[in-house]
From TrEMBL:
SUPFAM superfamilies: P-loop containing nucleoside triphosphate hydrolases (SSF52540), RING/U-box (SSF57850). Keywords: ATP-binding, Helicase, Hydrolase, Metal-binding, Nucleotide-binding, Zinc, Zinc-finger. Residues 111-153 form the RING-type domain. One of its GO terms (cellular component) is nucleus. Its EC number is 3.6.4.-. This is Putative SWI/SNF-related matrix-associated actin-dependent regulator.
Amino acid sequence: MDFVNLKLPTKTEHVEYINFNQKEAENYQVLFKDAQEAARRFFGKDKDALWSTVLEKLLRLRQFCNHWTMSAKKAISHDDPDYLAHAELKEAEMASPELCLKALVKRRELCPICWDALTVDNEPVISPCMHGFCRPCINQAFPSGTISCPKCSTEFDESALKETKFSDEELQADLDLDVSEFGDEISKQSSKTIALYKLIKKALKAPDSKVVIFSQWTSFLDIVERELSALDMQHVRLDGRMNGDQRDVSIKAIQNDANVRVMLASLRAAGVGITLTSADTVILADTWWAPAIEEQAIDRIHRLGQTKPTTVYRLVVKDTVEEKVIIIQDEKRKLFGEAFQETFKTLSRDVAQNMVRQLLSD
């Protein structure tokens, strides 16, 4: 019998801290003060303030850390009168799961499992009881395939979940890439993308190295992909918008094609069930609430079959919510692990609100 070596090569992790340029820092502070005000109203028991508004503004802060264009459109205020006037789903939308799901995404309704906004990036699905979820969240929360809706307790089979196809116009609207208000003052590259490209070039100096870049948002992967294409750097994608055949082609390319040395991967779509051991460098472009989700992604590379040492880089913008998430993870890793381990149970509102208080503190 052949001996199987179960000992993995070493894994080294680094946190790469990044400084905003002056313009980015100024615009971030405007968004941060706006988020703080939304939180102050909510935690101050303002009857018109909504939790979803706080999370929407926090989402914008997190996206801004990646690239300023991702927050170019004003965050939706769920408690704004103009929003509330159009918040009720129309009869036609309620009659069609697909139309209802599109409406929920447009309104940035929250996934009740991860407390993040429903976006195209998050592979949104809708239940028979007309509640929206991120598909990876619902799959990991109920791995058996029998689901009890976290919002209303309706029981149904996973096969009853519906998804919808978004038009190119709807996809573009969801990306929020309206950059006209910034004019020509800011270059097309953000401080984070500049740092990212430097790391890619550094890693690829070794002739047999390959890199997998994970992000929560396919809109950010789109931004990175444009630059890689401009540099004539062969790469592949792996995200929730791709069907099974397309994913298989990408995985085979990064695994077997020596000319393909970079993969851009959605953290959720590539977090489980695949092997990417041809790569030896992992770049986490943004910080997820739960270390367990990031670790699942890293384990696609650092797993049985890996023959080279693995290097992991976490990109974190200093003096932002990203840096605070890293601190919270270090201080309360056990709490995060319990909240987001393999069973992926719903994060309690008390825990989520305590996290948000810390993230938006001065």
